[in-house]
């Protein structure tokens, strides 16, 4: 069993996205998913790294045709347990680096909402992106989620008083970029890292969005908000989530691409 399987076998991934603070990332991602398929008659949707199905199952229950590819068998079992058989969804155990079982140009929307969190080399990242592009129709959309570097430095390194530990383990570069390895589970990037990847694949960027923005910095405050105040927080978040001067400080981002 590898680090990713160990992590997700013990993690309540659904719970992460259903808390008030976690729901901001979910609601933001769903907003842009719906934008991407708006106006398409019966779009074909692929989610690579579908996890326990928070997005794929929701979309399938809304009537969309979904193919859900997931690397971790435990996650895929949870996803399947949420289905009643009426949904147009195909769950598949598979790897983002090899989608050879899927045809070229088959999907209107391809989503990588988790794989880039766990790919540590440029070669692997580009392989996953190229596979996503390959299976997407010309002019189709590709959504790619990333974990961001600066939020981790601010919250984990300084906020949780882990500076000495990460320095002792040489986990920071001189310019404060976190060094990631599989045992750390998550790969952390900056906006310029994402742009460098995009430049090497046949896509046009449409938007780079902060999916949780400042939310993770104030988890307890946001979880304690009454519903009216939380709605106002969402209003603020949606008004600012595309501001490029703020995107890099978000915990998560969503790169919205169009296949050329």
Give the structure's gist in a few sentences.
With 260 residues, the protein is an alpha/beta fold. It is 41% helix and 20% strand.
Explain what the structure shows:
The chain has 260 residues and is of the alpha/beta class. It has one domain: Rossmann fold. Helices cover 41% and strands 20% of the residues. Strands 1, 2, 3, 4, 5, 6, 7 and 8 form an 8-stranded mixed sheet that branches. Helix 4 links the parallel strand 1 and strand 2. The longest helix has 18 residues. The termini are far apart. The mean pLDDT is 94.
Secondary-structure map with pairings?
Blueprint (H helix, E strand, L loop, with lengths): L2 H7 L3 H6 L1 H18 L6 E5 L7 H6 L3 E6 L2 H9 L7 E5 L13 E6 L9 H13 L1 E13 H11 L3 H6 L19 E2 L1 H8 L4 E8 L8 H5 L3 H14 L3 H4 L4 E8 L1
Parallel strand pairs: 1-2, 1-4, 2-3, 4-5, 5-6
Antiparallel strand pairs: 5-8, 7-8
- The H-level CATH homologous superfamily, spelled out, is Vaccinia Virus protein VP39
CATH architectural name: 3-Layer(aba) Sandwich
Q: How would the global form be characterised?
A: globular
Number of separate domains:
1
Total DSSP E strands = 8
Instruction: Determine the number of helices (DSSP H or I, runs of at least 4 residues).
Output: 12
First CA to last CA: what distance? 38 Å
Approximate helicity band: 40-55%
* Contiguous uncertain segments of 5+ residues: none
How large is the share of residues in beta strands? Answer: 15-25%
Rg: 18 Å
